[in-house]
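INFO batch 0412 | record 1 of 1 | parsing
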Amino acid sequence: MRLPRFLLFGGLCAALNDALVIGLVWAGFHPLAASLLAFLPVLAVGFALHSLLTFETAMSPAAFLGYALAMATNFPAWSASLFILSDLLGAPIAFAAPATTVLLVAWNFLFARWALARCPLERNRSSDKKSRQNEEAGANSDRESPSTFAEFALTKKPQAIPAPLSPEKSR
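INFO prediction complete | emitting tokens
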């Protein structure tokens, strides 16, 4: 199941993000500036972990772009939550950053799943084309397309990428 892996690796990314944001705020940066500075390193680590280990998808520029856009959509919510908790309510950053992280876990899961499920990792190069077609036909024949984003995020399973032809087979 992907959710436990997402929670494990997402938790590692959240801890890295919180450590960076807290450290940068303690070093004198404003919480929003600290969040911006922490975004890129956490994005790179999260992309690698979630691509390879959580959703088992190929790491490609298209997948990275989708993941970056998906994660950027939660950045305004992260920033607004930090602003409300830290600046307006006066909560210490050591509380505000982790509390904000907890609020965004479900959001991140849904959007990471959407972004990365579009670029599946190749599973078995030795399968012949006919058996792959049979597997895909059998796997897809009794399923309807997801009608909502949430249904897609919770049910879509990555499909295998067809193996490229070797130079000998292409002749």
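INFO post-check: The CA atoms of residues 125 and 163 lie 5 Å apart.
INFO record closed
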